[in-house]
């Protein structure tokens, strides 16, 4: 099986019949970024998922989600064309941290 690219997951959700429900979006998100992939990315880091998102241990789900949204917007590759490789790496770390903390 070929290795999935970071952005290939966006192709897994069919929008031909509209955007669907949030439950379907969550399912598509989990398909493109599994817990094992997230653990592999975070395992290579010196930071914990909490440190990556800049939150304290015991943060609520809403605090985790708020931190994730702010950071993923800040580090989105489309907004950081001048440092594309760094933005992609940070986006992967941020998504991995959120994937582990939100499950």
UniProtKB/TrEMBL annotation:
Residues 1-22 are annotated as: Disordered. Pfam families: DnaJ. PROSITE patterns: DNAJ_2. CDD domains: DnaJ. Residues 48-103 form the J domain. InterPro entries: DjlA_DnaK_co-chaperone (IPR050817), DnaJ_domain (IPR001623), J_dom_sf (IPR036869). This is DnaJ-like protein.
């Amino acid at each position: 099986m070929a290795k999935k690219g970071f952005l290939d997951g966006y192709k897994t959700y069919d929008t031909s019949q509209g955007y669907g429900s949030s439950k379907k979006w969550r399912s598509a998100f989990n398909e493109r970024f599994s817990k094992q992939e997230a653990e592999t990315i975070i395992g290579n880091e010196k930071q914990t998922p909490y440190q990556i998102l800049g939150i304290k241990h015991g943060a609520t789900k809403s605090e985790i989600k708020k931190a994730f949204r702010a950071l993923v917007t800040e580090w989105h590759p489309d907004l950081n064309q001048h440092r594309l490789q760094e933005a992609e790496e940070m986006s992967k770390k941020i998504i991995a941290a959120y994937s582990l903390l939100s499950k």
